[in-house]
Amino acid sequence: MRRPLISRFATLTLALGLALLPAAAGAVEPGDEPTGVPSVPVFSAPEGDSIRAREYWLTDYGFTDLWQKTTGEGVTVAVIDTGVDAQHQDLKNNVVEGYDASDAGDSRGWEGLGLEPEHGTLAASLIAGHGHRDPDVKDTDEPGDPAGIIGVAPNAEIMPISLEIGTVSQNRKSIDEQLPDAVRYAVDHGADVINLSVGSDKTSWPQSWDEAFAYAEEQGVIIVASAGNRGSGLTQVGAPATMPGVLTVGGVDQQRKDSWSSSSQGISIAVAAPSESMIGAIPNNKYATWAGTSASAPLVAGLAALIKEEYPELTGNQIIQRIIESADDAGEPGRDALYGFGIINPEKALAEDTPDDTESNPLGSMREWMSVHRKAEETPTAEPTEEMEPVHEEGEQLQDEAAPVAHRPVEDSGILPFIILGGFGLWVLIITAGSIFRLNKLGQRRR
């Protein structure tokens, strides 16, 4: 039988728990952790601009240069995660009222849920953090305020949609229900991009997800998902990052090499982005260092927002095309299982001459996948023995098949010599009987 979905998504709780690290300086004392964020190392905002200086990806990947013409303004990014602290000093006014798909928290999606309630705030801050005022920090020409976290698309709008992952509360909705409900809400309420920094340890997904992801595809909404992390036990990309049409993001270190602990591998990876030595906002105006593709995906979601503002006439499929066409090839030539099409190149992704003429999603179609695989599922077999589900593109069965009954091979049973001797004796008997019969016939003729 298929494992319960809560077990599949429990890997998310482990991933962040292993990735969060205390800052080198300014660590808070025990008991000073933010409310509702148990056992998470955090640090208070230090004086000066040291937080901003830790965001190496802003300058190393050229995001700051792009802010002269695009900041993501007018673009809505839905963060389907564990909830977002809308009152954080680096996010306030950039977070609209969203939705709680779990029915367990704040109806606006503004409350952290589950074992990792800070996770959604971390992701949102990398997309649309705008910093905050600090008398000790000088103003800059950058958008937003000079202190604290600034996201790659600092003027984008965050739509938080909360899930409850890894815990069980009264009247809890399953992930089978929560995730498709969240995706549909995002599409129906104007999201241009959906960020999914959540994942599972299975390449397959429940059929209940199909229609919601196909609906997002048909409405032109871009879905960006994290590839998972080997450091938390994920040796391959898991759903929803394996679903057709999803822009799956792997992780690289500061030297732009594939990250062993803070990334994964799989044929569905589309591009790679920074995943190590990351820093982000967590509830109660505090910050944490972290690692993993949960941080890589928001950078790509923010990049999509920048492209959307600069080229508002482009479809979601064309924006995806720009991101993968502009990526710097790494690893094996062409697309590979570690970097996908390559490492993101934001400047090239915004360049006028980057191809964006596709009509279809370069990463596949969920609706087409359904027409082939789900249709096959509904076709009755000649001798049905159990309910079977379609095989995913990566070759993993959606539902575990019953193992065949093992039989001891006849050559290892001890009876093979007797079978051979018996067969040989029977053959000799037949030859002898035939010979006697022919001799009798010849004797009768001579008489």
UniProtKB/TrEMBL annotation:
Residues 1-27 form the signal peptide. Keywords: Hydrolase, Membrane, Protease, Serine protease, Signal, Transmembrane, Transmembrane helix. Residues 374-406 are annotated as: Disordered. The keyword Hydrolase applies. Gene3D superfamilies: Peptidase S8/S53 domain (3.40.50.200). One of its GO terms (molecular function) is serine-type endopeptidase activity. The chain crosses the membrane at residues 415-437. The active site is at residues 81, 119, 294. Residues 72-342 form the Peptidase S8/S53 domain. CDD domains: Peptidases_S8_S53 (cd00306). It holds the Pfam family Peptidase_S8. Belongs to the peptidase S8 family. This is Peptidase S8/S53 domain-containing protein. The lineage of its organism: Bacteria, Bacillati, Actinomycetota, Actinomycetes, Micrococcales.
